[in-house]
Here is the input.
Amino acid sequence: MLLSAFARARVVAALLTAATTLVALVATAAPARAATIQDQVDAYMKAHPGGTQVGTADIAYSGGKFVVTVVRTGLTATAPDCPANWFCFYDGTNYGYPRGKLSDCGAQDLGTWGWRNRTASVHYRMSTGSVSFLNETGSTDTILFTASTSRRTIPDVTPHRDLADYVYRSC
Here is the structure.
């Protein structure tokens, strides 16, 4: 059945309205996402003072010795994404953010940066050595798990999830 000129005009008008709405939604989605990221960075810095925002979602502590990425800014699926020459630990399993990263050798107290009892997955991107995650148990500390050049990713550190207090990197 052929549409009358009036019916065709209504269909075209409806399609144009839908296209305009879609363009408006796409145009406003990016700024809304950016504002949400900034809100999350601001909230993190309020809860964990002493850092300096150094990127869209990055906060540096202790002059850049420790860096937290509050949210994943890319649209890629959750995967290990630690930059080269760092070792990273994630608040969520399967590399869920926030993500902390360090690179120094020796013992480091994760509590310095508010990260005790928060590690659920890890990614080791150093070219040598290893890093052990330890639980403070009084007079002695217990090694919970170790990431290294031969075991770079641990998507879920269960049964030791949220128990690490310190890290010790062997260089």
In short: The helical segments are 5-47. Residues 1-32 have pLDDT under 50 and may be disordered. The first strand starts at residue 52 and ends at 53. The first helix runs from residue 5 to 47.
